[in-house]
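Bench log, entry 3. Co-assembly request; chain sequences pasted below exactly as received.
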Amino acid sequence: MSVTVGVHALVRRAHEERVLAILREHGTLSRAQIAARSGLSRTTLSEITGDLLGRGAIVKVTTDAHRRAGSGRPAELLALDPRSGQFLGVDLGHSRVRAVVTDAAHEIIASGVTPYAATTSLPARIRAGLALIDGLGREQGINLSALQGIGVGVTGPYPAGTARADVRAAFTETLRAPVIVDNNTRFAALAEAGMTDARDVLYIRLSAGIGGGLIVGGRLVEGAGGAAGEFGHVPAVPGGAPCRCGKRGCLETVAAIGPALAVAGVHSLDELAARRDEPGVAAALERIGDAVGRVLAAAALVLDPELIVIGGDLSRAAPVIVDRAAGVVAVERVPPGHDVAGAGRRDGGEPRPVVRAARLGDDDGARGAVAALYRQSPLLAGYSNLDGSAA
Amino acid sequence: MSVTVGVHALVRRAHEERVLAILREHGTLSRAQIAARSGLSRTTLSEITGDLLGRGAIVKVTTDAHRRAGSGRPAELLALDPRSGQFLGVDLGHSRVRAVVTDAAHEIIASGVTPYAATTSLPARIRAGLALIDGLGREQGINLSALQGIGVGVTGPYPAGTARADVRAAFTETLRAPVIVDNNTRFAALAEAGMTDARDVLYIRLSAGIGGGLIVGGRLVEGAGGAAGEFGHVPAVPGGAPCRCGKRGCLETVAAIGPALAVAGVHSLDELAARRDEPGVAAALERIGDAVGRVLAAAALVLDPELIVIGGDLSRAAPVIVDRAAGVVAVERVPPGHDVAGAGRRDGGEPRPVVRAARLGDDDGARGAVAALYRQSPLLAGYSNLDGSAA
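Structure output for the full assembly:
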């Protein structure tokens, strides 16, 4: 059930965005003021504002202060409705669903989370997500009847498949808006990359599993099979522990939450965070950081990124992993200024790449799903992996 | 000395390309026939053909067979001049300069090579290149006075620098045509990728040094510092031999020609090729192939390419390196159909990536330099690393 939008609709959407951007900047304006600033004809503008009013995206504001001189008629002014949800981002994660709702100004106006067991089936995850969203609307007073789009992140690196179709069908049917579906970690990469100017970014997430995303030349990358950015199954320990993928010694057997807790001798992330400075625990975390660093360093030497971002629950609980990984990447970097091949020379700027912790928290996937909906991001140019894409 | 071309010139170039494409397809046509097929006005067409005739790119063909019925005047027909060089590709490599000249139909009409010592200075390399090109013109009867563009590949991963400016200045001054300069291995990657439909390709070259190039999402990638695709300094042997970059155990300390000859106990690539099936030599080559495979496998797990191409003198002399590397990549691949993350499934097509030897020979760099000039390649969309780019 692919959503297709014609040229006319795209032009209409662009006009709509222009009107919303003007109201975002100026707050409250009359139709005449919007017409002057947008360059749109009164007829076109009237259609656009009528539709936005009908969808609840904007509201009429009438005040005495704006009463026209010499006229008894109040000037009808228009403004964004801060209580109308425009975009919904959902992250159907490993052990919880997260949702964020943004308004026409792209500000988050509601968000929530519902935990579930990691063994929860996909239909049950979808039901939990829809219940969470229903609750957001009722309890936080958000109007969800005029959504412009819904982005849903799901676990798993690979595109297509019936699972994604089921997700799309369920959200479209219940919420009556176009739905896009993609890997939730890639959405998180998009959200993190959107916070920087860097055009070449590696993002890795250390959580129940390990995933990631690549921004190359200012674009989110898919890979030939939709699995670009999957750092989890890069060999990290020769002949290491068996991995659920069938190989041995993958990074996921070392730096996912389960093996990290086991090697540190603790039972939960909270316990890990509380005891992370004890010598035995610290040494285990350093070894994990070194393994993450080796995998990232090899990728960085090939991709030459400006920035490496490490996110996920595990790195939040144990920041030393980020520090150690940064150290390994720095050591493996070809020394700046070193003339490796005889005819060139790296310019003498900052050492590259910078390695740092993610700035966003656990709602990064839901935020990225919303960012993907905006479609304004040049990061998504040429990106075709969004199931049910409206562009 | 950057070469800039305005909008008018770009439109003119597009018209010119259309006329050349029509002549390429139909062989010989009258001006009226070209006008009908191109949709260009007679005035515009007259300017274009006048200029192409003046530059020697096309010629007038007059035959009795085309004599107009009822008229004594022979019809003047136009055709591509197969002896006029349009594009020049030069590869100022480690130990030789290669050049290829293509005509308006993008066919190679002349090529040559001049060896020099690896210690040759850049000015001496440039002089050797210009002498080679001069010889091509005189000895092979090629008209080089109407070149549309010159692409020059140089060693070294890093962009900018005075070396590139010197190269550009020397070729522009002598040959009076726009010059672009980039890394010669990246040009080779462009040439190899241009021979396939794959949109995600890793290219590695095993030669005196190790270089490579990445095609990601149908685009040649630069990296933040212009060093994307540099596989040579990825760690391949923990604590291995010192590398000229200052680190230890880089792939270049294992799989460049020098160390490969040393570990195989031979003195030249010819001797290596002759003795490659002897057990001791074969075992050494297999270990080299395994190291190359480990580095490529890690990159492939992160980038998810469709195709990996292995080129360079060493892999041509020892094809077992390609076979072994392909084996390692196949083993490290996440098994197709394996549901690694719970909600997705890799589609059940061919195992990916395919690993194979390069199809082009030692002239790959020069061919890629010409391919970059054509500018028709979507592979170059968004690619800004070509010094002196005319686009």
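Chain A touches chain B through 73 residues (CB under 8 Å). The first strand of chain A starts at residue 28 and ends at 30.
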